[in-house]
Predict the structure.
Amino acid sequence: MIDLYYWTTPNGHKITMFLEEAGLPYRVVPVNIGKGEQFADSFLKIAPNNRIPAVVDHSPEDGGQPLSVFESGAILLYLADKIRQFIPDDLRGRNETLQWLFWQMGGLGPMAGQNHHFVQYAPDPIPYARERYIKETSRLYGVLNKHLSDGREYVVGQYSIADMAIYPWIVPHHRQQQDLADFPHLAKWFGRVSKRPATTRAYELAKQINTAPVVDDETRKLLFNQDASIIR
């Protein structure tokens, strides 16, 4: 059994997509980040960065005590290695998958996240920041679009954790000021992933857990005004 500490964010969706694809038994433990539940001591023991998602595997491969993992990319890699699926076995395929996983973790996720912040949530408009992150998001879409232009169905050929990592950050493309019509190869891939039954199940689950997503003034304080003092 896997305990999934989860909220309905792109990083959260990555893990539900994996678990639904894999058919692993799991239990969702909602962590409402808009209410500050990510700062609970019990959660911080599992995820010291006070971010979702995190998992606790009650049946780790070594047969030992339950094992906790935080950071969405690390979780995807851990789970893929656990069941030996969704990551190629061969050296070159595995390394290609890891490169695109890290591309999402170090590029698309952070840049699109800043895009979301300055386009949607910043209390005052900052034109330079908006333009900077909208353009960088566009550049990253272009990188993926070019990569997919050779006709491959998925990011590394076969469906993998690279696709699961990237897809949830493309879902809010309208809010990122991106038009998928400008990226035809990416758009075909996006449609292909969206039609997978496991993807549908993962996003339906999200609707059941978070029925009224909203960012109000109190939520802004919790999400956007953190510094080192919350760790001390």
